[in-house]
Design brief:
Blueprint lengths: L2 H7 L4 H18 L1 H11 L6 H4 L1 H14 L2 H22 L1
Amino acid sequence: MGYVQEARENHVKKKVEEALRSKMKQKALKECDQYTSKYAQCAAGKTISVVWQCRKQAKELNDCLHQFTNDAVLEEMKKEYMLQENQKGSSRV
């Protein structure tokens, strides 16, 4: 499959992509809830010192979030969306 053809198949409207990104972020936050809690506990009552005192928790949170919010995940979500749309279209005919 050529690059242009693959790009066409995975192309979604801007609003759809924004919705998929939002869904991706929500899932990531849900999956990484334990790390979010650890970071929040560390950051409670701190101001500027949170940067160096909570560095470990921040890194763990960012690493977890990145697993669920990267380009590969978004592309997979786009493919799933396009498959669903194609199935809807073919069932209408």
